[in-house]
């Protein structure tokens, strides 16, 4: 066999379940790559000859490169003032209704240039990369007009050109009602579906379409369906901010559209969860936002397990509900707040996160998949969930490099 590169003296969590081990652990393992793909993975002593460059990993653990499948990394300004107001008693919802919240970030983002958006988002991306992240999803949603939504997505694409990482973009124009449409939520949803979405799709700026379904501060199911129908017409997959603050039937709606994922889903009901599992829609859990807005109604993990729903975990990094580009912290929060097992949490940032983005070429370590690796100085995989905001990542490989 011929390889370009080989990593040895490592323990490998392949994330391909076998013999009752959900992590697919290979102790004293090795991984070989050829042309950016994994060519071989197994016990070191079984490694065939054919290595060009060999890296000894000193007993480190190798996992698939981590995937943050839900972020709003591109935005201007911050919401520290809103944080203060919330400490004085205002709720996330009350601030949004008073024209703050998402709309205050919209004002800052509209005032920023594309260069400024890239410059402010890159340090957030770099924090994720330092933790072993090799694929990240980035949403628009702080423009709420065609020009600024396009600019946010272009900024995200430019970040991908400036760092060794895969970026997938999602158009989230249906995130809030902009000031130009006072009290005209349905009109704005129609504008997104008829004008903004087709123009963004024609420019190839979005890999998927997202929306915020919420009957009070987002869009209702019917308005969301206009946007989703337009996405289908443009050939783009959909995903949804669903049932974050109340049960609006978002889980069932996402299943009906065969969405890649429904995200947050704290208030999703058991029927909606079962429908998602049946439709292959991934449930993306965002424990950082749950924690930060001091939500007290946890997602129904028992129903998700019973339905066999694939659960992913992501940062939701955004200025309002989760100002944290720290995916490893989310592993801990997912375990502590939602009682996920270590295996569930780790699948949530690898295999299931890949599924939430519609990617079948990554998220696990097996021959033929992209050679995206994350190396950690840990003694067992549980350490990745155990440390509270510590980063044991010592290396990253992206397409074999
Ligand atoms: O994922 N729920 C709506 N959207 C974001 C929050 C955005 C913001 O507050 O700026 C979320 O939580
Ligand atoms: Fe979000």
Features:
401 residues; alpha/beta; Urease, subunit C, domain 1; TIM Barrel; 2 domains; six-stranded mixed sheet; 15 helices; binds N-(iminomethyl)-L-glutamic acid; binds fe (iii) ion; Imidazolonepropionase; iron
Provide an overview of this structure.
This protein is of the alpha/beta class and 401 residues long. It folds into two domains: 3-65 and 362-397, Urease, subunit C, domain 1 (Roll); 67-357, Metal-dependent hydrolases (TIM Barrel), CATH 3.20.20. It is built from 15 helices and 14 strands. It has helices at residues 80-87, 92-97, 102-110, 114-130, 146-162, 185-202, 221-233, 250-256, 270-279, 287-292, 301-307, 327-338, 342-348, 351-356, 383-386; strands at residues 5-13, 25-34, 37-43, 53-64, 66-68, 133-139, 166-174, 208-212, 238-242, 261-264, 282-285, 311-313, 373-376, 393-397. The strands form two sheets. The chain has an eight-stranded parallel beta sheet with strand order 5-6-7-8-9-10-11-12. A six-stranded mixed beta sheet has the order 3-2-1-4-13-14, with no helix packed on it. Helix 6 (185-202) runs parallel beside helix 7. It is globular. The mean pLDDT is 97. The structure holds N-(iminomethyl)-L-glutamic acid and fe (iii) ion. N-(iminomethyl)-L-glutamic acid binds at residues 101-102, 105, 212, 241, 244, 289, 316, 318-321.
């Amino acid at each position: 066999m011929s390889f370009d590169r080989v990593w040895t003296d490592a323990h490998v969590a392949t994330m391909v379940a076998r013999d009752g081990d959900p992590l697919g652990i290979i102790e004293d393992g090795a991984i070989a790559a050829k042309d950016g793909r994994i060519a071989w993975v197994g016990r070191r002593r079984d490694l065939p000859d054919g290595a060009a460059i060999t890296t000894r990993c000193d007993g480190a653990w190798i996992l698939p490169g981590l995937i943050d499948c839900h972020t709003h990394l591109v935005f201007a300004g911050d919401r520290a003032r809103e944080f203060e107001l919330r400490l004085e008693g205002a709720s996330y919802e009350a601030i949004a209704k008073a024209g703050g919240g998402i709309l205050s970030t919209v004002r800052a983002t509209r005032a920023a240039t594309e260069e400024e958006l890239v410059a402010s988002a890159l340090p957030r991306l770099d924090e994720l990369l330092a933790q072993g992240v090799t694929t990240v999803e980035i949403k628009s949603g702080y423009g709420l007009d065609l020009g600024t939504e396009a600019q946010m997505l272009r900024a995200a694409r430019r970040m991908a050109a400036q760092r060794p990482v895969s970026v997938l973009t999602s158009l989230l124009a249906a995130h809030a009602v902009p000031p130009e449409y006072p009290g005209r939520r349905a009109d704005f949803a129609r504008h997104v579906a008829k004008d903004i979405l087709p123009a963004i799709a024609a420019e190839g700026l979005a890999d998927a379409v997202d929306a915020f379904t919420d009957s009070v501060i987002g869009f209702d199911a019917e308005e969301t369906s206009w946007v989703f129908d337009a996405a289908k017409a443009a050939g783009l997959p959909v995903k949804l901010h669903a049932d974050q603050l109340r049960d609006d039937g978002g889980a069932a709606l996402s299943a009906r559209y065969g969405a890649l994922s429904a995200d947050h889903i704290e208030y999703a009901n058991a029927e909606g969860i079962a429908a998602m599992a049946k439709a292959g829609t991934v449930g993306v859990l965002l424990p950082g936002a749950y924690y930060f807005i001091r939500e007290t109604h946890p997602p129904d993990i028992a129903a998700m397990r019973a339905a066999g729903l694939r659960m992913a975990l992501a940062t939701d990094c955004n200025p309002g509900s989760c100002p944290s580009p720290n995916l490893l912290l989310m592993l801990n929060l997912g375990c502590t707040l939602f009682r996920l097992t270590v295996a569930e949490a780790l699948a949530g940032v690898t295999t299931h996160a890949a599924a939430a983005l519609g990617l079948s070429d990554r998220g696990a370590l097996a021959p033929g998949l992209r050679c995206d690796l994350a190396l950690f100085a840990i003694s067992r995989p549980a350490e990745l969930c155990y440390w509270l905001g510590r980063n044991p990542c010592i290396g990253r490989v992206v397409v074999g490099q």
